[in-house]
Amino acid sequence: xxxxxxxxxxxxxxxxxxxxxxxxxxxxxxxxxxxxxxxxxxxxxxxxxxxxxxxxxxxxxxxxxxxxxxxxxxxxxxxxxxxxxxxxxxxxxxxxxxxxxxxxxxxxxxxxxxxxxxxxxxxxxxxxxxxxxxxxxxxxxxxxxxxxxxxxxxxxxxxxxxxxxxxxxxxxxxxxxxxxxxxxxxxxxxxxxxxxxxxxxxxxxxxxxxxxxxxxxxxxxxxxxxxxxxxxxxxxxxxxxxxxxxxxxxxxxxxxxxxxxxxxxxxxxxxxxxxxxxxxxxxxxxxxxxxxxxxxxxxxxxxxxxxxxxxxxxxxxxxxxxxxxxxxxxxxxxxxxxxxxxxxxxxxxxxxxxxxxxxxxxxxxxxxxxxxxxxxxxxxxxxxxxxxxxxxxxxxxxxxxxxxxxxxxxxxxxxxxxxxxxxxxxxxxxxxxxx
Length: 435
What we know:
Blueprint: H1 3-11, H2 18-30, H3 35-48, H4 52-63, E1 79-83, H5 91-100, E2 106-110, H6 120-124, H7 136-146, E3 148-152, H8 159-169, H9 177-190, E4 195-202, H10 211-227, E5 232-238, E6 246-247, H11 249-260, H12 266-282, H13 289-302, H14 304-315, E7 334-339, E8 344-349, H15 351-361, E9 377-380, E10 387-388, E11 393-399, H16 405-414, E12 416-419, E13 429-433
Parallel strand pairs: 1-4, 2-3, 4-5
Antiparallel strand pairs: 5-13, 6-9, 7-11, 8-10, 8-12, 9-11
Helix pairs in contact: 1-3, 2-4, 4-9, 4-10, 5-11, 5-12, 5-14, 9-10, 12-13, 15-16
């Protein structure tokens, strides 16, 4: 078998066999297939697409390129959740203790972030003492004993995906549904979950800005899951505006805690309830979505979810007092108010622009080597549909380094769009894809 023949076959729009796809992926990993050949193949896929079977075979070839996690020693049905990313998206920090508090085992593998804020691990490490360092045995024991644990993801998970993604990033082949879907699903499948819930974002703050593309991606990933025997459900949700009010690591942890207490962002709470209900049904903790929602709402209202958050923090070495005293989180030296430049109804908030502004304040990494300031970021005081008066506070900037403050303040003010007439916010959830 020769790489050039496989590239030509795909360029002609023909369907590749599982053996041909495996040959390409493993050859690329071991260095027998060069970057320029994989670039040509990725471009052929970009224009010709892949069948459902090809996409499934590609996913499994990437899973097989590295280590897989065995969660079989953990009792119960393990359900993993993945979001395609967005701004002010604090769902994992709320969802993990929320669903664990009603009996869904949460065995979470997470990484660090590259973008407008840190990843889940970076955010949790803003809690004093919190550590994800553990052996696999300790991780399993924590989930079996407490129903929840998190650990850092091994660098040896899906190495083929890491290589291929880096190549796609510099060859203008990122925006390919089969390549995106196989990238996401390979990591989820390698992480060992029994079932998967996906939150696929759409809007100006999402990777898939058009709803049609987000729905296609959701359907493709659900089909991959079904083909490899992992029940998978996807929710297509709005990211045309920030999901929550906080953008920044410690700020997002604080918002997650407030949300667990019933005081946080309404949109964040609603999406977490909907995602959590799907997780509960897949884990067979509840017979249907409505029953699951009742369990989750009770967990929020009774303080059950908050207590699970305290336990989650404690077993990872963190200071659980932070749940009752948010000032124990890293605090920025300075706060700067951004005020409305006119009166009117907020008709839109440029989510990705605010994400970029948070990164400029130091909340995210521009490169993998960048250091993150866990205290800084942006907190919004209004959402789409709200009426504000001239001079009213739109947002607060949390700042330690004033270097970019002036330009960030201007850009944050410019991220808000106004209307003279009342505005109806877009729906939070557009579609649920289950098969």
